[in-house]
Amino acid sequence: MSETSQSTDPATIDALSDAARASGGALGAQTALWRAMFGLEKWFFVARGTPPEVGPLVGLVDEVPSLLAFTTGTRAREFALANGLDEEQASRVLSVPSSGILDLCDQLAQHGVRRLVVDQGTLGFFAPLDQLRPIHGFIQEHPPEG
């Protein structure tokens, strides 16, 4: 999916999230943040359900059905523990390659999920699910300068 030249690490995303927040949502800062997200090798999710019917946790954030994505498996686990799941449930973390994220989001949007929230409880930045493909397309069409 991503044609970025290298994989991104979560610490970079933390810094870019802070920069985007400080910029008041400036396009350049938002583009850098989402470029980094799509540059992750994998996105992580709290697993819900039982095999073979396992899917990512969807929760209400500001009363909006939201897919909760995390930049690390540890953050997904910590979120699950902080929100009442026991150790066994919290340790069930899904990892999805970045190449599969847009398809996953499209499937969930068909079931009423409206937003993607990243690192809820830590960063909490978000995008409407129906805007992820346009965001990704914009990033692909506008490679980083330099």
Question: What does it look like?
Answer:
The chain is of the alpha+beta class. The chain is built from six helices and seven strands; from the N terminus they run ααββββααβαββα. The strands form two sheets. A four-stranded mixed sheet has the order 3-4-6-7, covered by helices on one side. Strands 2-1-5 form a three-stranded antiparallel sheet. The protein is globular and about 45 Å long. Mean pLDDT is 90; it is low at 1-6.
Number of strands: 7
Determine the N-to-C terminus distance: 21 Å
Structural class: alpha+beta
The global form is: globular
Tell me the series of helices and strands, N- to C-terminal: HHEEEEHHEHEEH
- Tell me the major beta sheet: 4 strands, mixed
Strand content: 15-25%
Brief sketch in words of this structure:
This protein has 146 residues and is of the alpha+beta class.
What topology emerges from the helices and strands here?
Elements: H1 10-22, H2 27-39, E1 42-50, E2 53-56, E3 58-61, E4 64-69, H3 73-82, H4 87-90, E5 93-97, H5 101-109, E6 115-118, E7 125-128, H6 132-141
Parallel strand pairs: 4-6
Antiparallel strand pairs: 1-2, 1-5, 3-4, 6-7
Helix pairs in contact: 1-2, 2-6
